[in-house]
Amino acid sequence: MAVHKIDNLAGLFSRIKKKDKTIIREFANALNRAARESVNLTVDEWNQFSTTNTSYIKKHITVVSGASPERLQAKVWARDRATRADNFSYRKVAGGILLNSHKGSAGGILKNAFVVKAKSTGTPIIIQRLAKYEKGEQRNFMGKRFKAVYGVSPNQHFADSRERVAPKALSSAKKQFLKSI
Q1: Which DSSP category does 150 fall into?
Q2: What is the residue range of 118's domain?
Q3: Is pTM, for the whole model, over 0.70?
């Protein structure tokens, strides 16, 4: 009789272990869902406020490694390089470039700025002259006399927005996790 009870206990432990594995797998799925939702909410927030092409941020922020039952951690990557100003809304005006990086804003004029095409890619780059033109100076746009104009990087935006989007993403993932178990 005692052996029979131990066999039942072993079966119970086996069922508990299977349930534990299911819970851990569902928890990993919930973490992955929260990471994807964080990316989606960040992309939506960027597109709501930024004048860049709506696909720009999607290329520069993503989930790079998902959670698994063995590793309960999901990682989101966002490009750390600044966004070239030509990705935002701009136009040439007298005396410089009118640059508008935020929707609903009039933007501002970058004095002594102009657009050149990159030799390697042919894409436009906004350059601002920092010092007056000196007769005979080289036009290579290098050095202390010129600077390329950049805006916020996707990584900077994500660092700022994750405090706002994380609670929404985690709440959604938590609801789905509780449903699944």
Answers
A1: E
A2: 84-151
A3: yes
